[in-house]
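Curious: explain these C-alpha cells?
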Amino acid sequence: MNSLQTVLNYVATPTRGKTPSPSADPVEKSPKPRGDRRRKSSPRASSARHSVRDEEPPEDRFYHPEFQRAFGDARVLMARLAGVLGSSDLHLEPDSTIRALRQRAGKLANFQCPSSRVVGLVGDTGVGKSSLINSLLDFKGLARASSSGKACTCVVTEYAYHDSQDFNIEVHLFDDDELRDQFTELVPAYRYFRQNPPESYTDANERRYCEEKYNLARDTFHTMFPHQFKTVEQLLVAPNLAEIRITERLVAMARELGPSPSHPQVRTSLEDCAALLLSLTSEGPGQGPAIWPFIKKISVFLNSYILSKGLILVDLPGLRDLNSARRNVTERYLLECNEIFAVCPIDRATDDAGVAAVFGLARKARLSNVGIVCTKSDVVKSEEAKNDHEGPKRAEIRDRIDSLATVERELAEIKNELADLPSDQDDDSDGERAERIELSLRKDRKYTLIEKREFELKECIVTARNQFVAGKLKTLYRKGAPTGEVRVFCAGNVDYWANRDEPKTRALKFLKLSGIIEIRRYCISLVSESQLRAAQKYIQDEIPDLISQVDLWLQSGAGSASAEKKQFVRNTLDGLEARLQRGLSGRKSIPHNLERSLVLEFGQKITSQAECRIGVWTKGAAGAAREWETWAHTTYAAFCRNYGEHHTQKAGPRCWNEEAMKVMIHELEEPWNEFLLAVGHHMKTLKQAIEDSFDDAIINLDDALENKLDCLLPLLQRLGSQQRLLVGEVDAAGDKYETELRTLRTNSLSHFRTSYFGQSMEDSYRRCNLDSGVGSWGRRKTIIGRTLGSERLFRKLVTRFKVQLQSLTSELHTEIMAAMEAHLGDIKKSLDLVRDENIALESEKDPAFGKRLAEETGQVKEAMKRVKEAMEREEAATTRGG
C-alpha cells in the first residue's frame, strides 16, 4: 500500500531555509491601499504594525486587569515555593514527600486554564470561509481555495494551538467501514444511471437528480483510482455482479492503493504549510492520485494568538453536499460545536440556501448556539450604495460622495497649477519657488483629506449595509432560533489584509472596519467563562490544598509524643480513613450505586412506556405515509430525492421523518424532561453525600484529637480542600453527562438525517431514489409504507436509545469512582504523614531546609490572602458595574 507520505511527496516538498511568517505570504501579495500615494511619515513609532496581542480583550471577569494580576501573582508564588522545595537534597530521593510536593508546586506554577471551545464555520464553496479563517488566525494564505474551488470545501479541517513556530498537520483517514458506506451509495447510483435510458425517467427533475449522483460517483471513483479507472468502470457495469460484491472489491482496492496513515507532517514555514494543505485537498499532480477522497478530517496545529486561548476553529463543508458521507460528517460535527457560524457573502445573505440549511438543522437538533458571518462586507460600490438606502442614510452617502468629489476636483486644480509652472525648477524666481512649495503642501493636504474622505465614505456605506443586512437576518431567523436570538457579524477580509502590514496609526481604523477584530474578540470570550471557573478553582482550592500538605510535612516532625498518644492518634486516623472509604466508595454508598439508580430511573420513565407504545407510534407513522401516498407521483419522488424533507408549492414545507415521529416525540417529551429532573436530583444527592462524609469525618477528627495533635489544623484544612476539589470534579463530570444527555436526546428524539430515526430511514430513501420508470411510484410507496408500518423501526430506535444511555451512565460512574479513589489516595498520604513515623522522620533530616520552607510558606499564605482580597474586590466591582 502506498503511504500517505509517499503520495505527499508528489505535491509538497518543504522549502528549505524559510522561517514562519504569520502575515506575510510571498505567494499572495496584498493590494496597496490608495493612501500610499502620500508621503510616508518619518518617526519610527508611526511604523509599528498592529499586534493581535494588543487587541482589547473581552469585557468579562477573567480578562479584568485586577483578576489577571491576581492570577499571575498566584503563579509566581507557586514558582517561589517550588524553588524552596527544590533547595534541599530531599527532593532527589525517589519516594520522598518533598519530591512529590516540589513536583506539584511546579505544575501549579505552570498552570494554564485547560478549557477549550470549538467554533464551527460552515458554508458552501466560494463563500469566503478560507479567507475568514486566515484573517481570524492572522496567517495570510494558510487556507486557500484550489483552482476549481471544489475540493477544498469537502474536508473538515481543524485549527488548534501548539506552542511552537512550526506547523503540524495530522491527516485522519476514513476507515474501511466509512468507505464502505460511501461506496454503498455511489455504486448503485453509478450503475442505475448507466443502465437506464433517458425515456425510463418519469420527469426531468428525476433524471437530473440521478445524473448528478452518477457524476458524483464517476468523479469520486476517477479521483480515487485514476490509473485503474477503466478496471473500475468494467467492475461497476458488470451485469452479473452483485452490488455488495462490487462494493467490497472497491473497499479492497482502496485499502491497497489508497494512502495509509502517516505520522504528523511538520512544516517550518507558512508557505510550505499552505502548499501541503492545498495538496491534501486538491486533485493529484498530473495523473497522480488525489488524497482528499480518503480524508475524513485534517488537524492543523499552529501558534496563533486566537487559538492560544483554548479556541479550536473548524472549517466545515456545507450541508448541501451531494456526497452523503461528507454531508453527514459535517452534520455530526456541528452537534459537537460550542458555537456555529453559517458563512455566506453579504450580498446574498438573506436568500443563501446554505445558511437556511444550517438553521434548519439547528431547529431540528435544538441547537441554540448558531450565528451568521457575512463575508465580503468591504466590497462596496459607492454609486450603487447611494440607491440601496432610503431617508437620512441615502442623503448622508450622497453628501459624502459629493464631498469627496469636491476635494478631488480641488486636487486636480492644484495639479494643473503645478503643471503650469516652468518645468525647469533651477530657473525659478523666489516667488515661483514659494508658489511651488505652497502648491505642493496644498497637494499633500488634499491627498490626506481625500484619504480621510474615502475612508469616511466607505465606513458609512459598509456600516449602513452591515446594519441593514444584520437586521434582516435577525428578523428572518429569529423565529426559528431556539433562544430567539441570532448573532450576526460582518467581515471584510480584503480590507484586513490590504492594511494588515501598514503602520498601526493608519491601519487600525481599517482593521476595525473589517470586523475581524470584533469576531476574534467574541470567539475568545467563548472560552473565558470556563477559564474563569478553572482559575478560581486554582486559587481557592488547588493552592490551599498544596499549602496544607506542606504544613502537614512541617509539623509532622515537630514535637514529641508518648507511645500511648501516638497509638491513639493512629487509631483515630485509621477510623477516619475507614469512614471515608465507606461513605465515598463502599458498596452501599451513594456514589457506588449511582449508575444503577440512573439506569433504573430511565427504565421507569422511558423504556417501560416506550415498549408498550411502539404499536401506537407505528400506527401514527403508517398513517402519515398513507397521506403522502395521495400526492402526485412527481411530488412524491421529489420528497424521496430529498430524503423526506422538501418544499413544493402545493405541499408546502414538509418533513416526512418529523411527521412519522410526531406521536413518539409527543409522548416521550414529558417523560424525558422528568428523567432529566431525576438526574439533577441524583447528582445533587451525590454531592451532598460527599460533603456529609467529609463533614462527618472532620467533626469526629476535631472532637477526638482536640489538643492531642500539633498538626490538627493543617490536616483539617487538607480535608476541607480535598472535599471542595472532589465536589468540583463531580460537578464537572455531571455537567459533561448532562451535555451528553442533550446530544442523546437530539439523536433519539429528532428527525434530521444523521439522527437515529434518520439513519434508519436512509436505506429506504436510497432504494426509492434508485427506482424509476413504469410502476416506480407504486414501488416507492411500498418501500416507505413497509418501513414505517413495521414496529421494528421504533423498537430498534428504543433499543439504541437505551443502550446509549447505559453506556453514557457507565462512563459517568467510572469517571466519578476514579475521582473518589484518587482523592482517597491523596488523603491516605496526608494521614500517613502523621501516623507513619518513617515519613515523619524525613522532616528531621535537614532542619535548615525546614526553617526556610516554614518561612516561605508563611510568606505565601500572607501573599495569598492579598490575592484573594484582590479577587473579591474585582468581583464586587464587576457586580456593581453589572
